[in-house]
């Protein structure tokens, strides 16, 4: 075989470029850890969010009673403001002032402004509301502000000092501003108390919740551990189904899949055992014959008799070699998964013609007319050329073995346009196969009683296995045109799916 220029150099360089590379090992994750992560991660992420939301809610709850107290103070102060001679005055006594400012924690501030914005009473530096933020007279509003660097909460209201008098349509209301403010110490203290009451129990509940999650996961996954122990306790030769009655519902499909796999494995082992037993039985005959002939040749002194013994040894060794080759072919066909077979587009005309040419000399030696008929168009299918060649060879070999001299064997390739099938037929003029035997002849080592033809009984088993690997249908029919009544013959027909991209065949079907 010639080597393309430069291929030697590329082969020499390729190992060096990949020498340092190691296959990446996949990290095996624990199912327990995976579930625990997915359960705890959201929990630990939501916990800070829960604290933040709780704090905001606590502040809102804490503001409500204090805002109502400020509102009451504004209403009380509003009742103490009067208008006399166009001036706003207050009637607030000193004891009332002391009561207003009496608070252990918060500092209370108030302010009353007259009709022209002058401060009538209270704290002069209390900030006034914005000009555009003037609510309807009599309503109380709230706002946050800063007084002397301290955050405060202010309740304020504009009161109409002329509310009891009668105004003309062109007279403006006499508005005075009343404000009461307080610092936020009590609000913060109440909010913190609420937070402590809510958050502190969570520090106790959270570890308990984690422990319960851990315990629940351990109990939930314990059936897997028990199933593992039961499988490990099995004997190596125990392929009986696993009892799925004591496993959770979610694991039942896994156990069923394992049982199906065990069943297939048991069938495969049974087939292999039967195959080995049959092969050993079939090998006994040629090996025993070779041993007997070799011992006989060692005792002989006549050259003619020695030659006959050696000829028998050669015949037995040829039979043993053929048997071994067929056993290997059958084993390869049975163990090769369809997905692992090298499939390619094949012209069944060309493939069958090439195989027929290989058997021409054998047919001449047997004085049998071996013919070939092909379709006028290419018959394209997908398959393994090696396996299909072996299948056609076994069909031709079987036909030549059972067809007597001066008779014919015909290999035919055609297209069934009605069913969109590629048809391979091998027609012989042998003794034929009774309908009752046509299913059994595909069994390994099965031979029809009364046939004196030598063979291993594996050829048709190989044919069926290869046809099955290619999703082909195999049939045994009567020869429609036998040469004589004594040899009715039979017709082996194998039907393949046509290549859907074969435009010529598809045009013929349409």
Automatic annotation (TrEMBL):
Q: Which residues form the HAMP domain?
A: 218-270
Region listing for Disordered, in residue ranges: 1-24
Q: Where does it live in the cell?
A: Membrane
Q: What is its main location?
A: membrane
Q: Which GO terms describe its molecular function?
A: kinase activity
Q: Which domain of life is it from?
A: Bacteria
Known EC number = 2.7.13.3
Q: Which PROSITE patterns does the entry mention?
A: HAMP, HIS_KIN
What catalytic reaction does the record list?
ATP + protein L-histidine = ADP + protein N-phospho-L-histidine
Q: Where is the Histidine kinase domain?
A: 278-500
Q: Which residues cross the membrane?
A: 38-58, 194-217
- SMART domains per the UniProt record, alphabetical: HAMP, HATPase_c, HisKA
Query: In its UniProt entry, what is this protein called?
Result: histidine kinase
Organism in which the protein naturally occurs = Undibacterium umbellatum
């Amino acid at each position: 075989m010639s080597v393309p220029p430069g291929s030697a150099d590329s082969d020499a360089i390729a190992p060096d470029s990949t020498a340092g590379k190691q296959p990446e090992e996949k990290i095996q994750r624990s199912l327990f850890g995976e579930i625990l992560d997915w359960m705890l991660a959201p929990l630990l992420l939501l916990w800070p969010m829960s604290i933040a939301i709780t704090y905001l809610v606590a502040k809102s709850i804490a503001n409500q009673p204090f805002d109502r107290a400020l509102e009451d103070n504004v209403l009380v102060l509003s009742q103490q403001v009067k208008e006399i001679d166009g001036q706003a005055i207050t009637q607030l006594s000193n004891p009332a002032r002391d009561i207003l400012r009496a608070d252990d924690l918060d500092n209370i501030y108030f302010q009353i402004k007259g009709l022209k914005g002058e401060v009538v009473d209270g704290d002069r530096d209390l900030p006034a509301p914005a000009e555009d933020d003037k609510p309807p007279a009599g309503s109380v509003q709230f706002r946050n502000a800063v007084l002397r660097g301290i955050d405060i909460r202010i309740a304020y209201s504009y009161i109409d000092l002329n509310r009891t008098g009668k105004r003309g349509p062109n007279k403006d209301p006499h508005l005075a501003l009343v404000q009461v403010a307080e610092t936020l110490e009590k609000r913060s203290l109440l909010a913190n108390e609420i937070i402590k009451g809510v958050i502190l129990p969570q520090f106790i509940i959270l570890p308990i919740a984690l422990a319960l999650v851990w315990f629940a996961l351990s109990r939930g996954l314990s059936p897997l551990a028990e199933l593992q122990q039961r499988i490990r306790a099995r004997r190596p030769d125990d392929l009986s189904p696993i009892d799925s009655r004591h496993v959770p519902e979610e694991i039942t499909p896994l156990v069923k899949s394992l049982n199906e796999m065990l069943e297939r494995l048991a069938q495969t082992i049974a087939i292999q055992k039967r195959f080995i037993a049959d092969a050993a039985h079939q090998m006994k005959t040629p090996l025993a014959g070779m041993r007997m002939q070799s011992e006989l040749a060692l005792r002989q002194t006549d050259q003619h008799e020695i030659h006959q013994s050696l000829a028998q040894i050669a015949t037995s060794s040829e039979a043993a070699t053929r048997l071994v080759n067929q056993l290997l072919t059958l084993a390869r066909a049975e163990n090769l998964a369809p997905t692992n077979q090298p499939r390619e587009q094949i012209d069944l005309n060309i493939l069958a013609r090439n195989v027929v040419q290989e058997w021409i000399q054998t047919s001449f030696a047997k004085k049998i007319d071996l013919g070939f008929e092909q379709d006028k168009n290419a018959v394209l299918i997908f398959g393994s050329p090696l396996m299909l060649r072996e299948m056609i060879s076994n069909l031709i070999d079987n036909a030549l073995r059972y067809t007597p001299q001066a008779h014919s064997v015909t290999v035919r390739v055609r297209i069934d346009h009605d069913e969109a099938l590629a048809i391979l037929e091998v027609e012989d003029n042998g003794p034929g196969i009774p309908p009752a035997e046509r299913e059994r002849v595909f069994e390994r080592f099965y031979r029809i009683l009364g046939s004196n033809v030598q063979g291993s009984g594996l050829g048709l088993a190989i044919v069926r296995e290869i046809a099955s690997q290619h999703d082909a249908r195999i049939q045994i029919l009567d020869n429609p045109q036998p040469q004589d009544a004594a040899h009715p013959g039979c017709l082996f027909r194998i039907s393949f799916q046509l290549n859907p991209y074969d435009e010529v065949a598809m045009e013929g079907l349409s």
